[in-house]
Design brief:
With 109 residues, this protein is mainly β. It is built from one helix and six strands; from the N terminus they run ββββαββ. Strand 5 and strand 6 form a beta hairpin.
């Protein structure tokens, strides 16, 4: 059985419509940096961020969709604590489960 590697797509716009955000800082506090994998229809799927550095990828994602904005006075911090994809079996059925935990903080200058 082969393994299919899927990149997490960061294409959906995350816009700061209010114009109150100056920056987004992402802290990757995950103990296990591997996102995980699951099996579907006999194929093993593995997920990863585009550059294997989720902090940079998420910060660049935010900046890409907010290039031409008036910068505000709030600095946002996203603390990524857990991001796991795994298989779980329930009633003889296999389900793909996303275990995600993050905190966000805002500071005004």
């Amino acid at each position: 059985m082969g393994q299919i590697k899927n990149e997490i797509s960061l294409n959906y716009p995350v816009k700061d419509y209010s114009g109150t955000t100056n920056s987004l800082t992402v802290i990757d506090g995950r103990q296990d940096k591997n996102i995980g994998n699951f099996v579907s229809r006999g194929q093993n799927y593995q997920f990863h961020f585009p550059t294997s550095n989720p902090a940079d990828d998420l910060q660049n994602w935010f900046e890409r969709f907010n290039k031409n904005r008036k910068k505000g006075s709030r600095d946002l911090i996203l603390y990524l604590e857990k991001l796991k994809i795994k298989d779980e079996v329930e009633n003889n059925e296999i389900f793909c489960v996303l275990d995600f935990l993050a905190g966000d903080y805002s500071f005004t200058k």
